[in-house]
Write a structure and sequence with these properties.
The chain has helices spanning 6-13, 24-32, 56-67, 84-93, 129-149, 162-177, 183-206, 209-221, 225-236, 239-245, 251-266, 279-291, 312-323, 357-364, 384-407, 438-466, 473-482, 487-499; strands at residues 43-45, 73-75, 116-123, 272-275, 296-299, 329-332, 347-350, 373-380, 471-472, 503-506, 509-512, 520-530, 533-538, 542-546, 563-573, 576-587. With 589 residues, the chain is an alpha/beta fold. The longest helix is centred in the C-terminal third of the chain and has 29 residues, at 438-466.
Length: 589
């Protein structure tokens, strides 16, 4: 993972391991460091619906196909999406040649899954919400009508959703970056405030006054012009005071309580996940369930600049407590939807419908793995909730049709070599895998770092001894290998010296880097070492003072009797000659 030292990772790639598990960004980064993939017979991409645009999967797949003579890629997802263009992009990015699709109804799947009952539970908004809702809707419609008058919005306001506003914003930014200006700057402000108002309206309808209040408090602290406009208008309409004063929970909280209590009454050992999109709502739901004596815990992403996140250690602890039954209800944001080892649960509650068919399937898939599961989707009546729910259901069905049609158009990729020979792992070969502790992993990294530091010192001295003729990396690697240093540490040492600007590489040979900044070449000999400085003989003629901050070179050279050529500046300070050494070029024996 990214927490493993790059140097240690490069060493790990050189081992004779048969299976590697890595995050995509780590592999992409290591490709830039020289990792080669030609010897890998299979690449497996999990959650492959992410392989779009600049996501690391696309870079890794491209490198693999270009380097490997017979590349084989297996890409898996529970939900590639419903838009044909996006699925085609995934197939292009991962060089997909054939798609195998399975649904819950397929006979070869049925023996491995349990039935999942999907329930839609509408709730009515409190009357007290209506005044705030009316003000937000009017403010939003004013912006949308202004954008329509400018010819930017083509649909009636009631048919404009978040995705439309995002698309409008993208078009406005493209036009401005293309040289258009004038009224488009005003349009950009209108679009931005409309998006914030739509978000506020969505929070009120789907989350409640508490979460909306938290959002408005953040707007009040913002310096953005559009945010100040929204707060000012809410104050003028007399809505801001009411919003800050009202303390009426969204009826979904009562619905969550009822559904969870009912589930635990039927089966006290049940595991439950409540999904919600917003951290503020997570806190509210956990607070309500704990007040009933239900063991509940939040599960959210890592800390952000405004705080409030969970560390990886906290996340692991919560998941383990959930597996062990110490926690009955996990209240999670989108982090719990995919990519984590969360055990199968008996009940999944959607605090709000999600507009994405991918996220709908990921959430739903957390139940029904080993036994009968239940999914309850909460939705506020006459709100965006209902629109999202029915839209997502249609997208799921469309996704199945699109994938089947697309499969007929895929073509094989060109391969230049023979297929790899199968080499299956036999039962006797597979050791019992013990979890490696973090402390052990850190110790391995520390050992490798110490080895690289030792190698770097030897390399720096070796290249300076050779001077302008340079030093063969292969020759030095052979010499150091006899002393027990690994090839990976040697290559990493060379790379670090290059990054530090101490050497330059040409093919297999490395050379010392000459200094810049008007310095001249001099020969120095260390005469004496004193506290905080050294006395050097310059060109066999003069004595100069060298302080640590004026020396750029290997520390090992600053010892009595050491002699070397370097690019340096000589200058007078308090009547005494000083040297500023820019770079060491050669050690003189």
């Amino acid at each position: 993972t990214g927490k493993t030292s790059p140097a240690y990772r490069m060493a790990a790639w050189e081992r004779n391991s048969r299976l590697y598990f890595a995050t995509p960004q780590v592999v992409a980064n290591d490709l830039e460091r020289g990792l080669r993939l030609e010897d890998f017979s299979l690449l497996v991409f999990d959650e492959c619906h992410r392989a779009r645009k600049n996501y690391a999967y696309t870079k890794v797949a491209k490198a693999y196909v270009s380097q490997c003579p017979y590349p084989i890629i297996l890409a898996m997802t529970a939900s590639p999406g419903a838009e044909r263009e996006k699925i085609e992009e995934i197939c292009r990015s991962l060089f997909i040649e054939h798609i195998e699709i399975r649904t819950e109804e397929d006979p070869d799947v049925l023996p491995y899954i349990s039935r999942v009952r999907l329930e839609y539970l509408p709730v009515a908004l409190p009357a007290e919400y209506e005044e705030v809702k009316k003000a937000l809707r009017e403010m939003l419609d004013e912006r949308l009508r202004a954008l329509a008058e400018m010819g930017i919005v083509k649909k009636p306001p009631k048919y404009i959703f978040r995705s439309d506003l995002l698309e409008i914003g993208e078009k406005i930014r493209e036009a401005i970056s293309g040289g258009a200006g004038g009224a488009l700057y005003h349009a950009a402000i209108l679009q931005s405030t409309a998006l914030s108002l739509f978000h506020a309206l969505e929070l009120l309808e789907s989350q409640g006054l508490y979460t909306l209040r938290k959002f408005v408090e953040r707007l009040m602290k913002s310096r953005k012009r559009g945010h100040r406009q929204i707060v000012g208008e809410l104050r003028q309409r007399g809505v801001l005071d009411k919003l800050m004063r009202l303390d009426i929970d969204h009826p979904k909280l009562d619905a969550v309580e009822k559904v969870v209590v009912e589930q635990l009454r039927m089966n006290p050992t049940s595991r439950v996940i409540v999904f919600t999109q917003y951290r503020d709502t997570v806190s509210k739901v956990v607070e309500r369930l704990r007040s009933l004596g239900i063991d509940s815990e939040r599960f959210i992403g890592q800390a952000r600049k405004e705080g409030g996140g969970m560390s990886q250690r906290e996340q692991r602890r919560v998941l383990q407590d959930f597996r062990d039954g110490k926690i009955r209800v996990l209240v999670a944001t989108s982090i719990g939807e995919e990519g984590l080892d969360i055990p199968s649960v008996d009940l999944v509650v959607f605090y709000e419908p999600v507009p994405s068919e991918i996220r709908f399937i990921q959430r739903k898939g957390r139940t029904g793995r080993r036994r009968f599961g239940r999914v309850v989707v909460l939705a506020a009546e006459r709100s965006v909730d209902a629109a999202y729910f029915w839209s997502t259901r249609r997208k799921v069905e469309k996704m199945k049709r699109v994938v089947r049609q697309l499969n007929r158009q895929l073509q094989p990729i060109l391969r230049t070599g023979a297929p790899p020979r199968p080499s299956p792992l036999r039962a006797g070969e597979i050791p019992e895998v013990a979890e490696v502790t973090e402390d052990l992993e850190r110790e391995k990294v520390r050992r490798f770092e110490r080895e690289v530091a030792q190698v770097s010192k030897r390399l720096a001295i070796g290249v300076l001894r050779r001077g302008p003729e340079g030093l063969s990396v292969e020759e030095l690697a052979h010499e150091l290998a006899e002393e027990g240093f690994s090839k990976q540490a040697i290559l990493e040492g060379v790379r670090r010296l290059e990054e530090a600007g101490m050497v330059r590489r040409s093919g297999d040979v490395i050379f010392p880097v000459s200094g810049e900044g008007g310095g001249r070449r001099h020969v120095f000999e260390v005469e004496r070492i004193l506290p905080g400085k050294a006395i050097l003989i310059v060109d066999g003629k003069w004595r100069s003072i060298l302080t640590p901050e004026c020396y750029n070179g290997p520390r090992e050279l600053i010892r009595k009797g050491s002699k070397f050529a370097a690019v340096a500046n000589l200058y007078q300070e308090d009547g005494k000659l000083h040297a500023r050494i820019l770079s060491v070029e050669q050690i003189i024996e």
